[in-house]
Amino acid sequence: MARMTGAQMVLESLQREGVDTMFGYPGGVVLPLYDTLPQFPGMRHILCRHEQGAAHMADGYARASGRMGLCLGTSGPGATNLVTGICTSWMDSTPVFALTGNVGRSLLGKDGFQEADITGITQPITKHNYLVMNAREIPLTIREATHIATTGRPGPVLVDIPKDVFQETAEFDWPETVSLRGYKPNVEGHAGMIRRAAELIDQAKRPIIISGHGVIWADAHRELVELAEKANIPVITTFLGIGSFPESHDLSYGWLGMHGMFYANMAADAADVVIGIGMRFDDRAMGRFKDFNPTAKIVHIDIDPAEIGKNFPTAVPIVGSAKNVLPRLTEQVKQQSRPDWIRWIDNQREEHPSLHIRESRRMLPQYVVRTLYEETQGNANIVTGVGQHQMWAGQHYFYNRPRQLITSGGLGTMGFELPAAIGAQVALPDMETWAICGDGSFQMTLQEMSVLVDEQLPVKMAIFNNGYLGMIRQWQELFYDKNYSSSGISQPDFCKLADAYGIRAIRVETKAEVPLAIKEARAYKGPILLDFQIDQEENVWPMVPAGASLAETIEAPAHELAR
Amino acid sequence: MSTTTTNGSKPAPHTQHTVVAIVEDKPGVLMRVSSLFRRRGFNIESLTVGHSEVEGLSRITLVVDGESAPVEQVEKQLYKLIDVVKVSDLSNEDMVAREIALIKIRANNVNRHELLDIATVFRADVVDIATNSIILQVVGDEDKIDGLIKMCEPYGIRELTRTGRIAMVRGTKTTTVHEAEPEKIARLHASQGRRVEGELPFASD
Ligand SMILES: Cc1ncc(C[n+]2csc(CCOP(=O)(O)OP(=O)(O)O)c2C)c(N)n1
Ligand SMILES: [Mg+2]
Predict the structure, then answer these.
(1) B195 preceded by a cis bond (ω within 30 of 0)
(2) Domain range enclosing B39
């Protein structure tokens, strides 16, 4: 044991937990920590330009690598700037450790300069949070917080440390184990329930698997393939589950939901047994709850017992990790071929191909995504903002790996793309990383381009420039009589802007230039921005209008296909 | 720690559930519990907190309106809180449920005797007496307390406070936590003073 300052304890403890990268921004109360940082050369600090960026970077880092991401902000505004990012992690269950400083202990609760009750503010959007009131608590708190963030259903945690606790000296007492009597995730899955699930699947005529983000975090994608193949169960994914099952697989039928594939929605609606794995039957995926496939029996496998039965009554609840449950389920289900059911879905796909891109001289956004898919041979990591471009990126790129698509699904946070792509690129320096940016979304966090330059990160930014908050415009077109109120958006010249940051940029104005620009970006070693002047009024199809059921999925209307 | 809220309006008793949560006695735990109810739209009829038989653990008794949410969801969401160690629904158990009320009533030489008679019938104690008022203390289930309040109303109730329900299963069965913390962790928690009430410079709960 050694005596250390609180700041040293923080860095020592984080290093022991395997953290080697932090995304942060300094301020008065965290200066003791910044002052100590040079003593820990193994800890890489990446300076963001806005704390929201740091939180998304940590999130992108976590999603790309499967490891916990860490972000750091000062008290008050630094801490509140992290909030959007923390909530983004919360909604998508990603392991992010947010570290904040606070005012000195004697000033807490006195509304002093830059005090914010950040543990109070983040209480509903963290898995757990801590206010550390003395330095000796730091090692145990960091262990507990890391344990909570990374086990069970992952999620963000926040540890708030007053300035004088960073400065206080105490014995460093590292606990070998963590045990929290109120936190014991159940990973095993109940044997009796697994047997009942196997029976139900064996009897099912039209079973379908809906695979979610949880399969990716449980690292259970291989186990999922084995189950699907043995029992010949078609697999659709949720939007966040994209990549949990290879889209090139014969049994893959895309993803379901508001902008999911027509045949995926129909299959979910026609199934007699729905097997939800690591997903939470969210409204964007399932459509109007009361009309979702009322006769289907639901098998729900999830590590979070509170998700089971939350939105739908469940025939067979299995609380456990997909990693443990799926092999045991696979062992017990019978081998089957189900030709009629699979043919039925195949026919749906033939008649309603959803992902067909029409011939057009315009620069269709779908075409840009598909060209990117072809040019990168489907190998790049794709990080998106929120809006139409996000949906097209989900639809027209095909994903065969978990963690290949990084996107804010639950909170739908515009501005996620650039910082999350930075985090992903930091986690996987050799991976080709594309940020698919909305012209609106990008403007929310574009200052993080500085980080690309500082850290020499070769992120490729593709701006889908439609001059609109496109998704908003689409809703106004369809549901508000084309009253485009505040959805047309002016932009700076993105190429000049990139240039000002010292980043190369290409404006892409015609369809013919698309493949060339992508080739050029790929050949270029550093970061680069492509400003795609895409067709302005293209809509995302298919669509389940808000409040409608999956059976009411609408496809692109004829007049739009003629454009 | 001891805090209580009682919400006056009551649904039919059959929709009520008595939920007991054993929680870590740490700052903020009550805020975590109450904010969960607010956010998920679960209605709390009453909430009572106090120490349990285990040091470091508090016992929260919640009366939840079962119409506002499936009680199973309430329990699961409660259990997700890291500081919540155990959750039990006592509604289907044979339980003792009690509440205390203090009622300050207008009283004068003329009607004081009538009030004392009423108090006797309800086995309420007179805990304070003054020229123009008396305070009755009554222990019982909600129906009994409601009954006494109703009888006192014509005299003029000046002030009323109720603790909300506390409950316990009859017989040898318990709702407690038996599992002990690993020694080293317990030692760390203790050495770090986790966490005597009043130690923090402000009370988040
Ligand atoms: C922070 C935030 N504010 C507002 C919204 C609501 N919103 C959802 S999509 C969207 C438009 C996005 O525009 P853009 O980034 O240009 O993408 P496009 O839809 O045009 O592809 C808006 C405003 C949001 N999701 N996030
Ligand atoms: Mg746009």
Answers:
(1) yes
(2) 3-93+174-192
Q: How far are the Cα atoms of A30, A112, A409, B198, B205 from residue B201, in angstroms, in the given order?
A: 21, 13, 39, 7, 12
Q: Does B187 touch chain A (CB under 8 A)?
A: no
> B183 by DSSP, 3-state: which?
helix
Phi, psi of A23 (to 5 degrees): -110, 120
Q: What is the pLDDT of residue B187?
A: 58
Instruction: Please state, in angstroms and rounded to a whole number, the distance separating the CA atoms of residues A340 and B144.
Output: 65
Dihedral of CA atoms A370, A374, A379, A385 in degrees, nearest 10, equals -20
With a pLDDT cut of 70, the percent of chain A lying above it is 100
The CATH number for A3-171, chosen from 2.60.40.10, 3.40.50.970, 3.30.70.1140, 3.40.109.10, is 3.40.50.970
Is the CB of B73 inside 8 Å of chain A's CB atoms?
Answer: yes
- For the domain A365-540, what is the CATH superfamily, name and number? Thiamin diphosphate (ThDP)-binding fold, Pyr/PP domains (3.40.50.970)
Across B155-173, average pLDDT: 95
- Closest among A463, A441, A459 to A533, alpha carbons compared: A463
Integer CA distances (angstroms), A244 to A209, A210, A255, A370, A379, in order: 11, 10, 11, 20, 15
Domain boundaries defined on chain A: 3-171, 191-351, 365-540
Residues B84 and B183 both lie in one domain:
yes
Q: Please state, in angstroms and rounded to a whole number, the distance separating the CA atoms of residues B43 and B16.
A: 10
At the fourth CATH level, which superfamily is domain A191-351? Answer: TPP-binding domain (3.40.50.1220)
Interface-testing mutation among A126, A143, A181, A303, with chain B (most B C-beta atoms within 10 A): A181
Chain segment A374-415, per-residue pLDDT in tens: 999 999 999 999 999 999 999 999 999 999 999 999 999 999
Q: How far is A139 from chain B (nearest CA, A)?
A: 10
Residue A77 CB contacts under 8 Å (≥ 6 apart), including other chains: A114, A116
| Pairing outcome for strands B125-129 and A96-102 | unpaired
Question: Pick from A277, A237, A228: which is nearest to A401 by CA?
Answer: A237
Q: What is the pLDDT of residue A121?
A: 97
Answer yes or no: do B201 and A108 touch at CB < 8 A. yes
The predicted model gives A147-160 an average pLDDT of 98
Domain match, B85 and B179 both: yes
How many whole angstroms separate alpha carbon A213 and alpha carbon A239?
8
Same-domain check for residues B184 and B89 = yes
Residues B143 and B188 in one domain: no
Closest CA to A327 of A219, A235, A399, A402: A219
CB atoms within 10 A of CB A557: 11
We report the CATH number of the domain holding residue B23 as 3.30.70.260
pTM to 2 decimal places: 0.93
Q: Are residues B137 and B88 part of one domain?
A: no
The residues lining ligand 1, judged by C-beta closer than 6 Å to any ligand atom, are A 385-389, 412-414, 438-441, 464, 466, 468-472
Helix or strand or coil: residue A170? strand
How many structural domains is chain B composed of?
Answer: 2
Q: CA A43 to CA A50: how far, in whole Å?
A: 20
Question: Based on the domain organization, do B79 and B112 belong to the same domain?
Answer: no
The complex's ipTM works out to: 0.88
User: What is the C-alpha to C-alpha distance for residues A433 and A459, in angstroms, rounded to an integer?
Assistant: 5
Q: Which residues of A are catalytic?
A: 51, 113-114, 163, 471
> What is the rounded distance in angstroms from the CA atom of residue A64 to the CA atom of residue B63?
44
Shortest distance between the Cα of A305 and any Cα of chain B, in A, equals 7
User: Locate tokens 């939901």: which residue?
Assistant: A257
